[in-house]
């Protein structure tokens, strides 16, 4: 059975991106899913002075190990002011200090959602441009606009958007080892 990890690039306890990641990962056939929460991997704000005096925090290595011991990654990024949420960027920075190819070429379904009509497209574009340089093997991507209008009771209720996600899930599923 394939092991995938699913998480949101957010630390909100009510994260709409976590809801999307959990939903999407549940659509992958014959996979065990481990849902990760960035709140379980607290890290100090990255800085070279901190790293030189204290080293790399254990939680950065623990999260990186979750990536390395998975067969695939389902990630839904929160968009804050047109970029990654700080909590995600901080984790990303710490992990890159351990392994610059931190995504380990694992198949990745990259997503974003937001309350607005653009659905986190800006942060999705940033990630699609950056992650491949960091070992990111993005095999599918999906943006869910207007979360409150298109997602209810744990699932996408707009059939057209649901079908688009299922196409991306199929690409992701076919890429898993």
Low-confidence blocks of residues: none
Strand order in the largest sheet: 2-1-3-6-7
Coarse structural class:
alpha/beta
Strand content: 15-25%
In one word, what is the shape?
A: globular
Termini separation: 10 Å
What is the second-level CATH architecture? 3-Layer(aba) Sandwich
The tally of strands reads: 9
Topology at a glance:
Blueprint: E1 2-9, H1 16-25, E2 31-35, H2 48-54, H3 58-68, E3 72-77, E4 79-80, E5 83-84, H4 86-98, E6 107-113, H5 121-130, E7 137-144, H6 147-150, E8 151-152, E9 155-156, H7 159-175
Parallel strand pairs: 1-2, 1-3, 3-6, 6-7
Antiparallel strand pairs: 4-5, 8-9
Helix pairs in contact: 3-4
Structure description:
This protein is α/β, with parallel strands linked by helices. It has a single domain (2-175), classed as 3-Layer(aba) Sandwich (Rossmann fold), CATH 3.40.50. The protein is built from seven helices and nine strands. The strands form three sheets. A five-stranded parallel β-sheet has the order 2-1-3-6-7, with helices on both faces. The chain starts with a strand and ends with a helix.
Identify the notable features of this structure and list them briefly.
alpha/beta, single chain, 7 helices, oxidoreductase activity, 177 residues, 41% helix
């Amino acid at each position: 059975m394939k092991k995938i990890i699913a998480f949101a690039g957010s630390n909100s306890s009510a994260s709409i991106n976590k809801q999307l990641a959990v939903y999407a990962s549940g659509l992958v056939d014959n996979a065990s899913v481990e849902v990760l929460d960035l709140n379980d991997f607290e890290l100090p704000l990255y800085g070279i002075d901190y790293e030189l005096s204290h080293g790399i925090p254990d939680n950065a290595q623990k999260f990186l190990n979750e990536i390395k011991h998975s067969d695939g990654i389902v990630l839904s990024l929160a968009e804050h002011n047109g970029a990654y949420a700080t909590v995600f960027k901080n984790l990303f920075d710490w992990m890159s200090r351990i392994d610059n190819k931190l995504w380990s070429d694992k198949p990745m379904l990259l997503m974003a959602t937001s309350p607005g009509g653009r659905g986190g497209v800006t942060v999705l574009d940033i990630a699609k441009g950056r992650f491949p340089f960091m070992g990111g093997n993005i095999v599918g991507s999906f943006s869910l606009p207007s979360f409150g209008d298109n997602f209810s009771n744990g699932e996408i209720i707009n059939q057209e958007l649901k079908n688009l996600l299922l196409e991306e899930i199929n690409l992701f599923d076919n890429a898993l080892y």
